[in-house]
Amino acid sequence: MKQRWVPALAALLAALILAACGSATAPTTQAPAATSAPTEAATPAATEAATATEAATQAQGGAITVFAAASLTDSFKEIATAFQAAHPGATVTFNFGSSSALATQINQGAPADVFAAASAATFKTVSDASNADASPAAFATNKLTIITPADNPAKITGLKDLANSGVKLVLAVKGVPIRDYAEQIFTKAAADSSFGAGFPDAVHKNLVSEEADVKGVVSKIVLGEGDAAICYITDVTPDAAPKVSKIDIPDNLNVIATYPIGTIKGSKQADTAKAFVDFVLSSDGQAILAKWGFGAKP
Length: 298
Hints:
By secondary structure, the chain is α/β, with parallel strands linked by helices. Helices cover 46% and strands 19% of the residues. Strands 1, 2, 3, 4, 5, 6, 7, 8 and 9 form a 9-stranded mixed beta sheet that branches. The protein starts with a helix and ends in a 7-residue tail after the last helix. The model is unreliable at 1-59 (pLDDT under 50).
């Protein structure tokens, strides 16, 4: 009787061992399937993110044309270099000149992406013609100064001397912001008893040359073709400084020039244009402007 249970017991033990081995190996066969699913799902997402990054880079990598006031020439050239370094693929081309002339060109259809003017009134002519995308942002300020040739042949010592008989005065043409600001100074002086109401007329009688923009004004004095002129303090650049003498205008008679900047409607590189405006307004852009003598944005 005892010998009959031996085969049965052996068969039962073999069955139990086989069952145990089967249950231990089952999870191993399912593990690769569980880990492969997330890898396949992540691939489209990664591709989409890469595509979005590439699109954003391309959006700010186009070529733009910036119309800018002549007084911004040196500072904006440096800003463009820094901007292009921060936005690989972007290129900036400038059209410098008097703000009033640039505004006229824009309103007549000249291709521009950004406009930086030397006065709010000038930019307004572009906005009023519905050629600006939105209200401009003020990005810098400036002040005016008198300059003479380095040897100061007319012995100019202050604003009042611009009315002295025989002084050869150089100003920009009417309508250019630097001329408008100068006229505001003459009007302020006329209200001061130490100058007298006739001061503006006496100054205008000494006018021997009217230049297209402020750079032309400075050039006349550098070349010795005038005794005195009014320009922005920023126009007494390192190149011009050894060739001219600078005479301050009293703060109570001086004016603060405010510079606005904005994008132009219809730009084919709107994202790059906006990026340039943002860079001018940024701490990096403001530091460059300060280096060239501009006051902080108001």
